[in-house]
Amino acid sequence: MTGLYYEDFTVGETIEHERRRTISESDNQQFCDMTMNQQPLHLDGVFAADTQFGEQLVNGLYTMSLAVGITIPETTDGTIVANLSYDGVEHPAPVFHGDTIRVQSTVTDKRETSDGDRGVVTMHVEAFAVNREDEPLVCEFDRTVLSLKRDDDHSGS
User: Which of 2, 26, 100, 120 is most deeply packed, by most CB within 10 A?
Assistant: First the structure.
């Protein structure tokens, strides 16, 4: 699936992303290993059992990275020049092994670049743990991207 070009984004539009992912202990372990984050709250069940959460938590950066990845097909797949920023990252509720993550993106701003060749788009991304009774918001942030325009040489037309 091809992502959206600058002209395709509409401020105020919320995109409900179809893909979901259930996070396994192995996913969390591999992410922590790759990023050299050896926080025992993520990796040590005995340690985590003695915390306020009572069990291991999924690394928050993994949750955020997963949320970005889930958004790609319906937003920037093949139409992005670069990610410019991730702002206002919050983790209002913990993520546990076995949680299934659903993501939605709301377009909050868009503007052409000063030369008019491309566009800057900002989306508010929200991730939810859908398998829990109250479907808590587990991560949210603003993602700003530099997007191709349809008339750009890269659009294939």
Answer: 120
Are 135 and 103 spatial neighbours (Cβ–Cβ below 8 Å)? no
- Ordered by where they begin, the domains of the chain are 6-155 (3.10.129.10)
Residue 20 near residue 138, CB atoms below 8 Å? no
pTM for this prediction: 0.92
Buried b (16+ CB within 10 A) or exposed e, 85-114: eeeeeebebbbbbebebbbbbebeebeeee
Tens-digit pLDDT profile for residues 81-139: 999 999 999 999 999 999 999 999 999 999 999 999 999 999 999 999 999 999 999 99
**Structure token pair of residue 22:** 């259930």
Q: CB–CB of 75/15 below 8 Å?
A: yes
